[in-house]
Design brief:
By secondary structure, this protein is of the alpha/beta class. The protein has eight helices and twelve strands.
Length: about 250
């Protein structure tokens, strides 16, 4: 099966500082890839290259078999790439429905005026979230009233709904309760079942082995190794991340 995403020889420099060097990475639809590494390993920079925040200094990206220049987050979204960052990009005082359609607001015409179609956004957000098992009390509730897990669910649900090909999750289970974490991991599995490719960034290796198919480990801007999840264990991966072994496969 051909890869949905092929990154070849990706490098990124900031002046004299090399943040990424010669990174190769493939990702297939219906697959969860855990992207791992200590702080400063290059994970965030690599994701920002893939989502159009940073242009690569070297290397190429193919998407669905075709070369692509992802020059902005708008271009990334146009091909079906959605990212959920740690800060979630939700506005606490705004309703769930408005947050769900943030930047993609539905409108209707009233005479010569274009106004927000709040009714369609309420119904649409409830329906889209229900499709992946997220039930909300009232789409008019401000996001600020929700728990951390509920906010994460809304952000993931929005990304799954609009990200038709690739979902990138940056530390989605950080600062969540055990119960909320279980739900979020379930939503990640649901995205895979819907055929999305998923990049899962986390420091929690136990969560990695619960949901991931493959692991890619970065260190100092280089790819240290890539593994099928069943071929390694938590201790081995932890040692590689901490630099206690030079083993690569």
């Amino acid at each position: 099966m051909s890869a949905l995403v092929e990154m070849r020889g990706i490098g990124r420099r900031f002046g004299h500082v090399t943040a990424l060097s010669d990174i190769d990475l493939d990702l297939h639809g219906g697959e969860i890839l855990a992207l791992l590494g200590d702080n400063g390993a290059g994970k965030s920079t690599l994701i920002k290259v893939l989502t159009g925040i940073y242009p690569p200094t070297e290397g190429t990206i193919h998407f669905d078999g075709e070369p692509i220049a992802i020059t902005s987050p708008t271009v990334a979204r146009s091909v079906g790439i959605e990212t959920v960052y740690q800060d979630l990009a939700l506005i606490p005082r705004m309703s769930i429905a408005r947050n769900f359609y943030l930047g993609r607001e539905l409108t209707r015409q009233v005479g010569p005026f274009t106004i927000l179609d709040h009714d369609r956004m309420r119904k649409g957000s409830c329906s889209a979230l229900a499709e992946i098992g997220i039930t909300i009390r009232d789409a008019d509730d401000p996001v600020g009233l929700l728990s951390g897990g509920e906010r994460q669910s809304i952000a993931i649900g929005r990304a799954v709904h609009f990200g038709s090909r690739l979902l990138i999750l940056d530390e989605p289970t950080s600062a969540l309760s055990i119960g909320e974490t279980r739900k979020v991991l379930g939503y990640i599995r649901s995205a895979k079942e819907r055929g999305l490719a998923v990049i899962f960034i986390t420091h929690n290796l136990h969560h990695v082995f619960e949901v991931s198919d493959r692991l890619a480990i970065l260190a100092h801007g280089e790819k240290l190794g890539e593994f099928q999840a069943e071929d390694v264990n938590v201790d081995e991966v932890a040692k590689m991340i901490m630099g206690e072994t030079g083993t690569t496969r």
